[in-house]
Protein 1
Amino acid sequence: MYILRKHILEGGLSTAERGERFYLVRESILPEAIRKTALVKMLLDKGEAKTVNEAVAKAGLSRSAYYKYRDGVFPFYTAAQEKIVTLSLTLEHRAGVLSRVLNTIAGARGNILTINQNIPLQGLAHVSISLETAELRENLEDVLYKLRHLDGVKKVEIVGQS
């Protein structure tokens, strides 16, 4: 998932003209130039390319396209660093499911701030968890992937971020 700044989607209007807003967008629906811009940024961040020229060549993107989009494209985990994220989860009502969720978050060094679990109905419990992401050892996307694949976890969504 990627975060797009609103001014990219509105023809380059400045943040002062429109106020800065962000959109959470699935990678699969993004234009190729934006996906490749994100790849170039990742190559540079990870040190897999030392210069912009080297990174755009590896990604198959023109320098002009990279410079056009670079200030408005961020992988989701970058935008979520040093934030509080609230998750909504649907869990099977079985012993140990919530414990595995909490251990997964703790294992990634997520700092859990609040947990709210509703009374289970029809074998499912709805849980909301707020956590700080500043100390995460992993990308938030990777933590969400692990949570979604835990036995007994039916659904995981981000419902808030501050």
Note: The chain has a mean pLDDT of 83.
Protein 2
Amino acid sequence: MATTPRHWTLPRILVRVVLFFSLFGPALADLAIPDVAAMHLHNPNWPPHAKFHDAQYLVMAALLAAIGLTMLWRRTGNLRLQFHWAAALASVTWLAMFAALLFPGTGIIDPEFVADNVSILGLNPQLFIALVMLVLLAVAVGVERFGRRIPLAPESNRTPAAA
């Protein structure tokens, strides 16, 4: 009897949460939350080229998330490999936020907003959210790796073992 692969395991749910947040979160923050939008796409002090790169980031985050979600929803092929690729794609948006700070002249906040800056556990809210997303992904991969593993393929695709 064929069974459905386990698509609602804790690791897969955690990766889906991060991917859904990556799909909608950055765009909603930059376009719909007034205080955040004023620091980004709606900032009159930003030159058009800076706004272009912010928009590029928003689109890239959504595309990576959409690809990752598509991989997670598949029910054929190597499910474990698809899970790991989806988790890797989910991490790109958030890892890039930390990596961007390594480039000369970059900053997490523009000087005009420093006085209004709030922090969460000593981190800028963007970095805090990025850290939470990366921790969720690390937990998902850890649980998958050291807990109950995702099967390589759905049980319906497996060949029966020789008796």
Note: Residues 10-152 form one domain.
Protein 3
Amino acid sequence: MGLAIRVEIPISEDYRALTRLLTHHKVGYLTFALPEERKIRPVLRNVPYELATDLIHKDLNEQGFSVETVHKMHSRAGRPFPLALLIIPNVPNARDIFKAKDLRVCGLTGVKVEPLH
């Protein structure tokens, strides 16, 4: 069993400098994404599973939400859910999608937005 230490670096530039140094010296390390680099992952509820992900993606981008990817959600057994997971870069105003009260997706009403659990 090898030795390990835990280092928490509060400044992004210092974090990047340390990871470069460790990589240069071929020292193994584990890391987590910085908060500003993490993606926003809202879930759309009440979206028909049959609705194509590319249509959802196009519609939300036209509404001003910078969606990178849309994934349909299903059970482990493969049963479809009326849910769609969105992947949105953490840019200013990205969290505005959670404030959308009457979000319409491809003309559908009753779509709710919630954080991924």
Note: Residues 51 and 106 are 9 Å apart (CA to CA).
